Amino acid sequence: MISDKMQKELNEQIALEGYASFLYLSMASWCDHQGMEGCARFMHRQSDEERMHMLKIFHYLSEVDGRALAPAIKQPPQDFESVRSLFEQVYAHEQKVTASINKLVTKSLKEDDHSTYNFLQWYVEEQREEEALMRTILDKIKLIGDGPQSLYYIDKEIEAVNAQAAKAESAEEG
Q1: Beta-carbon count within 10 A of 127 CB
Q2: Angle, to 10 degrees, between the axis of helix 114-144 and the axis of helix 151-173?
Q3: CATH of the domain at 130
Q4: For a tag site, which of 39, 104, 169, 174 has the least CB within 10 Å?
């Protein structure tokens, strides 16, 4: 049995993950419109991943006799100043998600909710990886520059990230 407070906060996390999925979907559309196919594919994959994060919590609440709520999702922005500012927003959002996960971990410890604590450890690791990836991408953008002539190279770098992710996913399935 999960406490009402923990259930409420996990439902808030569901909403945060759902918003991230829609934000990244909006970013994918912007990238596609800019002719940045690699970045668009990356953002589509990130959107799918955030939806999966949301559904994991959704299913977890059912497993512990809680009630998951389908969130209302606020309209994310549709236009972005540059590819650099877009990835800066992604990084900032991932930091926000990390802070929220950390708050949930602390709450689970205070409530002696070891099941939820254990469940959240996957998210702790995932967020560390997400933040590291976004910092790496931002570092590459800073090195390349984000002027019009640099967009091609940025897109190719992001496509390389996509290829690495696809290879890792294939290895996990096989």
Answers
A1: 19
A2: 150
A3: 1.20.1260.10
A4: 174
Range of the domain at 152: 4-173
Report the predicted TM-score, pTM, of the whole model to 2 decimal places. 0.92
Q: Which of 157, 161, 151 is nearest to 84 (CA)?
A: 151
Q: What's the pLDDT tens digit per position in 120-173?
A: 999 999 999 999 999 999 999 999 987 778 888 888 889 988 888 888 888 888
* Cα 68–chain centre separation: 19
- Please enumerate in sequence order all residues whose Cβ is within 8 A of that of 81, keeping only pairs 6 or more positions apart, or say none: none
Handedness of CA 110, 115, 116, 117 (dihedral sign): positive
Distance between CA atoms of 155 and 169, rounded to whole angstroms?
Answer: 21
Single out the residue of 26, 17, 8 nearest to residue 97, CA to CA.
17
Count of the separate structural domains present in the chain: 1
